Amino acid sequence: MDWIVAPDDDGRALPDVLPSLLGAMNVAGFSDTIGFPACRTAGVLLIDGLGRDLLREHAEDAPFMASLLTSPPLKAGFPTTTVTSITSLGTGRCAGEHGLVGYSFAEPSGGLLHPLSWGTHGTASDSAGGRRSLLDQWPPEQAQPTPTVLERAAAAGVDVRTIVPAEFANTGLTRAAFRGADFRGLRALGDLAAELLAALSAGGPALCYGYHGHLDFLGHIHGPGSLPWRLQLTVIDRLVAMLAERLPRDSVLTVIADHGMVEIDPGEAVDADTDPALRAGVRLLGGEVRARHIYVEPGALADVHAAWRETIGDRGVVLTGEQAIDEGWFGPVVADSVRPRIGDVLAIMRDSGVIRSVIEPGESALRGHHGSLTSAEQLVPVLMLGG
């Protein structure tokens, strides 16, 4: 299917960013597959939701960042959702190894984990989406046991910092993806800029990660390309230009994203809860509206697969979890412990379609979404400053 931009293992994806920066810093045990300039300190500024295609389309709103679109894009991986992408970045591994395989996915007690809250996701019979914490029952260090890149860098003597909103301290996702770093909590944009510059000015080898989430937030609410979204993009462009002006010598800052975004056409929506053919044999419905994990009752795989394929038709692609694993969508390696988290059936939407559910009344009503494998969602920029 020519609309699918599938992940591959070419050294230019989100898991390669931090190891490549450490390679550019000449830290033992790491190599640069992306091509960063040699440096003493390095940083990543991740702009949530800024796909390569969106930056190109709105270059007039972000002229400085658009002028830096000189390198081939990175691939976000699958699914193109913040939880998975952030953990791929932080661990240097694809979802098949780190195990955070979507916006929500099956957890050992039989329910769905919502990793952003690290709580149960709720069910169709619990339309309010009530959640309870799983931090004690299924700790992030157990769900994602592989060492993070930051832990490995710190062990090699690198000053490692995460510069993210203060409310992210000690959350499940922070512990799963970025443990091992010195946490710097932010309250405003000035904090982000100042902390990035301070880390890049460190005396010894230093690696920092900064996060900005407001563009994604406005894209979800108003749609990518809307006036609020474009104005936020302009603010980010000026932030990046200011950082470039103040960047210390012998440092590199790269601006990347975790995924892109598409605007949703409500007329292309599928309602998973109201179609009997889509409910029969389904035990749990996870993932997000453009990339669903479908967990089936025992013995129902063939029937569920067939029913979803017939209903979705050419609006997307429906395949079994085993097919997706075999095609490398979750990376070259899928750990045995991760396989049960992947849906028995996957439904991936193309163009502007979504699969709505009463489980997620808020998410299903948003104007912008991501998760699928279109170029708009999969390809993200890698902008290089300094060196």
Poorly predicted spans: 124-129
Q: What's the Cα radius of gyration?
A: 20 Å
What integer is the average pLDDT? 95
CATH architecture of the largest domain: 3-Layer(aba) Sandwich
Supply the number of helical segments: 16
**Residue share in helix:** 25-40%
The name of the CATH superfamily of the largest domain reads Alkaline Phosphatase, subunit A
In whole angstroms, the N-to-C terminal distance is 40 Å
Count of spatially separate domains: 2
Q: Strand sequence of the main sheet, in spatial order?
A: 7-6-8-1-9-19
Instruction: Output the CATH class name of the largest domain.
Output: Alpha Beta
Tally of strands: 19
**Overall body shape:** globular
Q: What structural category characterises the helix and strand content?
A: alpha/beta
Please specify the SSE layout and strand pairing.
Elements: H1 17-24, E1 41-47, H2 52-57, H3 63-67, E2 74-75, H4 82-91, H5 95-98, E3 105-106, E4 112-114, E5 119-120, H6 140-143, H7 149-155, E6 159-165, H8 172-178, E7 182-186, H9 189-200, E8 206-212, H10 214-222, H11 227-246, E9 251-256, E10 262-263, E11 269-271, H12 276-279, E12 282-288, E13 291-296, H13 301-312, E14 316-320, H14 321-326, E15 345-349, E16 354-356, H15 361-364, E17 368-369, H16 375-378, E18 379-380, E19 383-386
Parallel strand pairs: 1-8, 1-9, 6-7, 6-8, 11-16
Antiparallel strand pairs: 2-18, 3-4, 4-5, 9-19, 10-17, 12-13, 13-15, 14-15
